[in-house]
Each structure stands twice: as C-alpha cells, then as structure tokens.
Amino acid sequence: MSGQKASRHSSGPGDMVQEEHGTPDRDLRYRRVAAELREAIIAGEYAAGAKLPPEGTLAERYSVSRGTVRHALAVLRTDGLVTSRRGTRRTVLGGPRAQSFSELLSFTNWARSTGETPGGRVDRVVRRPAEPLDAEQLGLEAGAEVYLVLRLRTLSGEPVMVERSIYPARVGALVAELPPDTVSHTEALVMQGVLFTDADHTIDLTWADADDARLLDCPVGQVLLRERRRTTNPAGVPVEWSEDRYLPGTIAFTVHNSVATSTLGRRHSPRTLPVGTDGPPAA
Amino acid sequence: MSGQKASRHSSGPGDMVQEEHGTPDRDLRYRRVAAELREAIIAGEYAAGAKLPPEGTLAERYSVSRGTVRHALAVLRTDGLVTSRRGTRRTVLGGPRAQSFSELLSFTNWARSTGETPGGRVDRVVRRPAEPLDAEQLGLEAGAEVYLVLRLRTLSGEPVMVERSIYPARVGALVAELPPDTVSHTEALVMQGVLFTDADHTIDLTWADADDARLLDCPVGQVLLRERRRTTNPAGVPVEWSEDRYLPGTIAFTVHNSVATSTLGRRHSPRTLPVGTDGPPAA
DNA sequence: GAGTGGTCTAGACCACCGT
DNA sequence: CGGTGGTCTAGACCACTCA
Fold first, then answer.
1. Would the CB atoms of B91 and A250 count as touching at under 8 Å?
2. Is B269 on the interface with A (CB under 8 A)?
3. Which of A61, A94, B3, B221 stands the most exposed, by the fewest C-beta atoms within 10 Å?
4. pLDDT of amino acid B181
C-alpha cells in the first residue's frame, strides 16, 4: 500500500481488511470466493491481461454481498494476481504467484509447497546468555538466557542453507525437547501453541564462516545470500530471531508489491540491523 | 497477506481493501485516521507493546463509522505498525517502518526518504531489439525494439549500484529524450503520464561484469547483490524491466509480512527468472 | 452518459480472549 | 461473561474511464 507517483498519482497508503487467524480456507465466504477466482485464473479461464467480471456480477454469481466480493478481490490483489483501477474492470496479471506467510516463515513449508523434499539436521543446540544483538532483537535483557539452534537445511538431500535460530528461553525450551529428527521446528512450535504472526526480514549477503563451510561443504569465505528474520506473536513479543545463509544459486527471494501493498524496502545505513559489511573473513 | 499457521492458526490469504490511486493523504477519511494514528504512534503516544483503543472508540473519536476505522487500521497493519487478533485490542509493534511503493520503485525516492543524496550518471542509452529475456519480461515479441539505459547510481557521491533498465519502445522514447542530468527517470516518466502500479522483485546475487567493474570501481567477478524488477501499469502491461546490482555492504532489503500480508517468497528452481547460478566469470 | 471501482455508513452476528 | 475484533449485508454516493 502506499505511495505512488507525483502529479497524477501520488502516494497514499494502501489498505487492507482485517483477517481471521486460523480458519479452513472455504469456511469464510470471502475466502471461498477468493479461492474459486484464484483457481479460475490459474486454470486459465481468465488469461493474463483479461478483464474480470464486475464486482456486482461476481456478487450475484457467488450469492454474496459486494463487500465480500471486494474482500476476496483484495486478497487476490495482494497476491499480485489482479490489479484494479477505478473506472475499469479488474485486470488479471501474469507474473509469479506470491506465497503464503507460512511458506515464508518456515523453510519446510516453503520447500513442500514447491514440491521439493526438505530435510536437514541439527548441528547443535546451545543454551547461552543472549549476546547484545540477540537481546536487542528478542527484546530481552542483555544476558538473558536464549537457545541457539544451528541446523543444516537440505533440498532433495543437497545442502542449501545454514540456519541459526535464536529463541527466548521459554520457546527455546520447547525446541530443545523436540525429537532430533523433527523436520519442521516451526510447525512443532505452532502445535504447541506458539503463535507466529508477523515477521521482519532483512536480505543481504555475507561470507561463510567455519560452521557454514563445514555444513555446506564450501570454502570458508564463500559468498552466501543471507536472510535475517525476527518473528513476533500477536502481542508483538519476539518469538524467534534467525539468520539463514543460502548457497548462491540455490535460491532467490521474490516480492510483489503495488500501490496497494508495500512491505518491501531498502536499507542503507544500519538502522536496526547492521548491513553485511564485515567483508570476507581473512580466510 | 495470507497464510498462517497450522493447527490453530494456519494459513489462508490475508486480505486487503481496495485503494484509490492518487488522492492527497487527508482527503479520504480512512487516510486521515490512518495518518493521525501513525503520527500518534511515532510520537510515542502509544509505545511499542501498548494497546490501541477499541475500534468503536476510535470511530467515535474521529466521527467515522467503524468500517472506516478498520480500513485505516488495516493500512497500519500492512505497514507493520500494529498487529491484531480477535478478542484483544490491537497491539503496537516496534520494528522497522515499511517504506512506500514509490520508495521501492525508485532509487531516487528511496534515497531521498532516507536523507541521503542520490546521484548518478547515465553511462549509455542503447536502442536495440529485445533479447529473449527482455521480450519475455516486457511481454513483447522477440526482436521488438527496446531501450536499454545503463546508469551508475551513487549515494553522497559514492558508487553504490549499477542499474540496467529496459523499456518498451514507447516508454523508452520518452526516457531517451530526458536531459542527461535527470536524477529520477521514474519521476520524469510519471510526470509524463506513465503509470507504475505493480512490481515483481527478485533478489539474489551475481558477479560483476566489465561494465559493473568499471562503473563501481571494483574487480570483475566481485559479488553483487542483485534486484531484478518488472513493473507494470494498472492494465498489467509491463512498463519497465530493470536489473540493479549493488555493491555488498551498501544496502539490504527489508520486508515486513504477517498473516495478513504476504508478498514475499523464496524461489528455488527457475520459474520465471533464472536464479543467479552463472557463477563468477572466469575473470 | 453508462459502467465500474473506491469510499462510507449502519447495523447485525459470531468467535475469541481474558477475568 | 463482557469486551473486542472478524465477517457479512444493504444501500448510497462519488470519481474515474471509455465509447
């Protein structure tokens, strides 16, 4: 959402409706409508560039109010499936499909959604006092107890990423109890009632240290694509702080945004997180 | 927007309301409310972790309907300023503030919004037939005429990024006419009536070629953070296709997302765009 | 000027959270 | 159980696009 262009267009935050947190897809009417439209688009009933029927027509077709249709269309719009402009019918866009929050949050969910086979192994779990950056990101006192989980993640058996997740004590204790072969820590936590609702991501690059090199089977100093993520629960309390390092060529991050959907930004001077300037290790 | 968690939460696209394209911030009621709440939050009237007043109260306070308040809050939510959960009041989040669409779209706008001084110089403008990737991204016939604009971008005089923008003939012709010292091509285009409403971004890494090395004053083969961007107008017609290569350490990309706001994704196997596997040039 | 999307209202009901 | 946010409706009016 938000800004745009100067003269004719020009900014202004976009807007979105609220949403429920945990209902099967087709229970809610707007989701049902969104799902059916999405399927129709993907099935090719509406080709890229085609116009969608007017809201009123859709409302009749699905026997819902216009408001509900608009809610559904807003979902599709954020997903980057359709645009809209006053005065004309909505247009179907081509382009990549955005993924869901859970696919973003969890390597496992993401891999599964792409048909890949996710795997991994825990390298070590360490219980230690929070370092300054940990404390800051998790909103803890310096020195509070945290858990560090270092894992290698694989795709179809190939090493792809090293994940360093840091959890506050309460959450970390749950993670430490998980069976060593647990594929998705995130999923396990969710099932134990830990809620993940918001995440801030920072993407830049860094260089492999000894752990990375050993786990990814690459030289120390190898350039890696880095994603750092701070995830919070509905109350805004941080529940995870993770640094993921990907081998180049294995992954790219995609973002869709529009005048009605912001969320992405660039960062220059260190604001919250230092940018990866450390430079390649002497190695 | 979108998905969530498994058992209790679990996925499902989020949702957003539609939005208008070009009205001053405070004309619309929901924007006025959003703006005032945003200011109040930034001013510290609601600290991080604090609870916002209930929707009904806000509706009275601003003399609008509850629907309008919800619309405003949805804006703040997408910006990552507040969370929400049924049954409890909304919570104010800390964390980085999301930037606007225009800041994302244009290096110039972004730099200005951070207080930096953007600069740059055009290295060359080439009019040539579209290469296969260009044609695909711009939705043109192979061999259709496009304009390539190669520019060095600087921050406070320091080289930061090399931008290769490819425009379809109609748009390119406008760009080619711009005075050589035009700082913001995007802004200039907007003023000429070219609309930018949606963008797909892909972030990965690549290695400097001869042009990059010359302009950025770095060795050939230097690792660079790459952002490729395809921007479309409200009709879904591509208006720009750009590849930006940043020196490491100068920049990081940030994304906020929540159960109510997706847009970010990972990509593994080439779907639309090949991931940067080319590997460092023999150099 | 007809068609269509964006804004806004008023009210209803439900699901969930905490006390 | 009361408070609060999420869903849905029905209708109104306006702004913009396009023929």
1. no
2. yes
3. A61
4. 87
C1' of C1 to CA of A87 (Å): 13
In Å, how far from its chain's centre is CA A244?
13
pLDDT at A258: 82
Q: CB of A25 under 7 A from strand D?
A: no
Does residue B52 approach strand D to less than 7 Å at its CB? Answer: yes
For chain B, what's the residue count?
283
Kind of pairing between the strands at A145-155 and A158-168: antiparallel
Statement: residue B13 has pLDDT above 50: no
Burial class (CB within 10 angstroms; exposed 0-12, middle 13-18, buried 19+) of B48? middle
Helix (H, G, I), strand (E, B) or coil at B23: coil
**In chain B, helix, strand, coil percent, each to 5?**
25, 30, 45
Q: What is the CA radius of gyration of chain B?
A: 21
Contact B205 A248 (CB under 8 A): yes
Interchain CB distance below 8 Å, B263 and A70: no
Q: Which residues does residue A148 pair with via DSSP β-bridges, in sequence order? A: A126, A166
The alpha carbon torsion through A172, A176, A177, A182 (nearest 10 deg) reads 110
Instruction: Say what the pLDDT of residue B267 is.
Output: 53
Q: In whole angstroms, give the CA distance from residue B268 to residue A110.
A: 10
pLDDT-derived band at B12, boundaries 50, 70, 90: very low
Q: In what order do the strands lie in the sheet with B158-168?
A: B118-129, B145-155, B158-168, B238-246, B223-232, B198-207, A252-258, B264-267
The SS3 assignment for A23 reads coil
Residue A1 near residue B256 (C-beta atoms within 8 A):
no
Subunit contact B201:A256, Cβ cutoff 8 A: yes
pLDDT in tens, chain A (283 residues): 332 222 222 233 344 666 665 555 678 899 999 999 999 998 889 988 899 999 999 999 999 999 999 999 998 988 888 999 899 999 998 766 666 676 778 899 888 878 889 998 999 999 999 999 999 999 898 889 999 999 999 998 999 999 999 999 999 999 999 998 899 998 889 888 888 888 888 899 999 999 999 999 999 999 999 999 999 988 889 999 999 999 998 888 888 888 766 544 455 443 445 555 555 555 4
d(CA B62, CA B28): 13
Contacts (Cβ under 8 Å, ≥6 apart) of A149: A122, A124, A125, A126, A163, A164, A165, A166, A167, A172, A175, A185
Q: Domains of chain A (ranges plus CATH)?
A: 1-98 (1.10.10.10), 101-246 (3.40.1410.10)
Would you place residue B283 in the very low, low, confident or very high pLDDT band (cuts 50, 70, 90)? very low
